């Protein structure tokens, strides 16, 4: 017995270590890390060289659910309210209505193409309806690709919050199919079950998060126990909500969102602990699902699997994203990019276990098709994310920032951060700019030697400087120590060929370039951009004005454009010519332009009077 126990521990720990080490290779080649973990699990499974037998669907779902609860709690815990405010409406719409729309479109395609009933097709669409937070987070930071803040926030908040809705839909549909109620039971009972789970999940998750934040501040524990209590409280919220008929996954995410944004004791150490625990849960869940899969059964599911993946990537996901983002003034390229970043992952494979556990006739087929959809999505969308981002023009130069930033918790209520900067030749301090008193480094590392400021003398290129400062001073420190962003004029593709004064009237710009006059031609350019973007202005934002683009180069302290670039367009400009992915504002503008053009061409021409014959008297005229 002991030999079997030690062998199981040896194999399990070895797979975890191998998976963690292969992440180095994934970072180098830009591969989706989830795909690497799944492949390792497949290789270790019964059809791979490892030959490990694992076919207990209930055990896989139990372990995977625990791991997913921790991952969702960490996703909410690390979602900042700043990101949530700027992206809450579009992201939450994508995480709810977008998941339902995707499931419906996939369900119709599965019925038409492969003969599944509408209810079974909708179940398959619900299983693959949510995006994978781990894959999205990993790929958005691979290779130094910097996406515009609002687009990144929408993707991160959506991928963090859409799992509970997919889980609700899947569990409710499996219950209906197991009860053999068919499509007739889809109306009232289904709506009641989903509404009950969502309501209880929201209420108990909010209560659990508030109790968690308040309790941690009142308890006087050893530093290492705060993380243990927090994880225990998160799993307690998850289990209690599930017992009373609510969605434990939604509850644990809401609890993490509330607790992570509340001032609580031990947050710095808790975040580091959560980071490592979440990685462990992801590896365990992905390996377990890879072990459970049987690749020898995949040939029978290749055609429906790849077919559903194509429908999902090129039709269902883009259409659902477009419909959800119509009310928001997002650029066409932004909507197209969000539509492409729809990577499926371990949550979809985990949900595919439910039809097997429920004893549905096509349970194994659901699992095999879902596994192939996930593999196709990760392989195609994962490896093309960077070139698609560059082609659509949503990549911006990296912003200023420290090499590393560590939040410190000092006695009392003081909160400081330790920022570590690597001095580069073109930073202001390397050029001799004098440091103010509040920005003097506490430690300088030069050639591997630590020294104080008065011993080091003038800061040189290549130094590492360590500074203690309040979070509000970090943007000012970035301007002193970090490398400046590229000069906008040197990057005309992203920032335009010319610079404009945002205070000049928009009508003057339109008349100068023979563009249609806006309704209020006396409005300043900066205010015109702010209104077109509904108040959410970021560096790199583009606003169309006829055939030209106004681009935000810099932002002042009030959130208005301080420098505006003008792009006249070129053959190299990443622009979509499709009538898709336009927001509602652009659609109305395009419709008005089409109507004006149609009226112009339909207007009858005035008859031209014939030229009178020339006479002798007219020769002198």
Give the topology, please:
Blueprint: H1 2-29, H2 33-44, H3 57-77, H4 81-114, H5 118-127, H6 133-140, H7 149-161, H8 163-178, H9 188-218, H10 225-243, H11 248-260, H12 267-292, H13 302-325, H14 332-340, H15 346-351, H16 353-357, H17 363-392, E1 404-409, E2 415-422, E3 443-446, E4 449-451, H18 453-456, E5 464-469, H19 474-481, H20 492-495, E6 498-500, H21 506-512, H22 525-532, E7 542-545, E8 548-555, E9 561-567, H23 584-602
Antiparallel strand pairs: 1-2, 2-5, 3-4, 3-5, 6-9, 7-8, 8-9
Helix pairs in contact: 1-2, 1-12, 2-12, 3-10, 3-11, 3-12, 4-5, 4-7, 4-8, 4-13, 5-8, 6-7, 8-9, 8-11, 9-10, 9-11, 10-11, 13-14, 13-17, 14-17
Number of domains: 3
N-C termini distance: 120 Å
> What is the typical, i.e. mean, pLDDT?
79
What gyration radius follows from the Cα positions, in whole Å?
A: 29 Å
Q: Characterize the largest beta sheet: strand count, sense, and whether it forms a barrel.
A: 5 strands, antiparallel
What fold name stands as the CATH topology of the largest domain?
Answer: Na+/H+ antiporter like fold
For the structure shown, list the relevant keywords:
disordered C terminus, single chain, four-stranded antiparallel beta sheet, alpha+beta, 621 residues, Uridine Diphospho-n-acetylenolpyruvylglucosamine Reductase, domain 3, Alpha-Beta Plaits
């Amino acid at each position: 017995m002991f030999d079997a126990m030690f062998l199981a521990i040896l194999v399990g720990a070895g797979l975890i270590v191998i998976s963690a080490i292969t992440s180095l290779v994934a970072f180098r080649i830009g591969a989706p890390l989830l795909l690497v973990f799944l492949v390792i699990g497949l290789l270790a499974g019964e059809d791979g060289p490892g030959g490990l037998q694992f076919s207990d669907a209930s055990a896989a779902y139990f372990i995977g659910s625990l791991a997913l609860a921790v991952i969702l709690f960490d996703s909410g815990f690390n979602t900042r309210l700043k990101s949530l405010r700027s992206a809450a409406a579009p992201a939450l719409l994508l995480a709810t209505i977008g998941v339902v729309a995707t499931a419906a479109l996939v369900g119709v395609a599965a019925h038409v193409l492969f003969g599944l009933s509408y209810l079974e097709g909708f179940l398959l669409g619900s299983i693959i309806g949510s995006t994978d937070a781990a894959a999205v987070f990993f790929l958005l930071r691979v290779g130094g690709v910097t996406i515009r803040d609002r687009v990144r926030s929408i993707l991160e908040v959506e991928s963090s919050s859409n799992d509970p809705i997919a889980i609700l839909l899947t569990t409710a549909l499996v219950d209906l199919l197991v009860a053999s109620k068919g499509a007739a039971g889809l109306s009232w009972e289904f709506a009641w079950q989903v509404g009950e789970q969502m309501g209880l999940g929201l209420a108990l998750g909010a209560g659990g998060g508030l109790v968690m934040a308040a309790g941690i501040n009142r308890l006087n524990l050893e530093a290492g126990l705060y993380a243990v209590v927090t994880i225990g409280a998160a799993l307690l919220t998850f289990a209690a909500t599930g017992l009373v008929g609510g969605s434990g996954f939604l509850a644990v995410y809401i609890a993490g969102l509330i607790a992570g944004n509340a001032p609580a004791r031990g947050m710095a150490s808790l975040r580091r602990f959560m980071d490592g625990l979440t990685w462990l849960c992801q590896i365990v869940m992905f390996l377990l699902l890879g072990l459970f899969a049987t690749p020898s059964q995949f040939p029978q599911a290749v055609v429906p699997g790849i077919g559903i993946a194509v429908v999902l990537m090129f039709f269902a996901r883009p259409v659902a994203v477009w419909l959800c983002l119509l009310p928001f003034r997002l650029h066409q390229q932004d909507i197209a990019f969000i539509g492409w970043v729809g990577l499926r992952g371990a949550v979809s494979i985990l949900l595919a276990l439910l039809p097997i556990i429920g004893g549905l006739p096509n349970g194994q087929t659901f699992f095999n098709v879902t596994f192939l959809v996930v593999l196709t999505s990760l392989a195609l969308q994962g490896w093309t994310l960077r070139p698609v981002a560059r082609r659509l023009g949503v990549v911006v130069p990296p912003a200023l920032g420290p090499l590393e930033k560590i939040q410190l918790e000092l006695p009392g209520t003081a909160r400081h951060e330790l920022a570590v900067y690597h001095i580069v030749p073109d930073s202001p301090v390397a050029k001799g700019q004098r440091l103010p008193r509040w920005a003097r480094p506490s430690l300088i590392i030069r050639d591997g030697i630590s020294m104080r400021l008065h011993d080091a003398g003038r800061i040189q290129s290549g130094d590492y400087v360590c500074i203690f400062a309040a979070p509000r001073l970090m943007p000012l420190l970035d301007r002193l120590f970090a490398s400046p962003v590229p000069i906008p004029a040197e990057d005309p593709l992203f920032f335009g060929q010319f610079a404009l004064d945002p205070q000049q009237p928009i009508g003057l710009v339109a008349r100068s370039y023979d563009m249609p006059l806006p309704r209020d031609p006396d409005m300043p350019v900066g205010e015109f951009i702010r209104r077109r973007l509904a108040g959410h202005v970021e560096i790199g934002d583009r606003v169309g004005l006829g055939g030209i683009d106004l681009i935000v180069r810099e932002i002042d302290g009030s959130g208005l454009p301080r420098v505006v670039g003008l792009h006249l367009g070129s053959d190299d400009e990443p622009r979509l010519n499709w009538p898709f992915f336009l927001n509602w504002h652009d659609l109305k503008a395009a419709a008005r332009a089409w109507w004006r053009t149609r009226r112009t061409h339909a207007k009858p021409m005035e008859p031209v009077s014939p030229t009178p014959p020339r006479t002798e008297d007219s020769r002198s005229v």
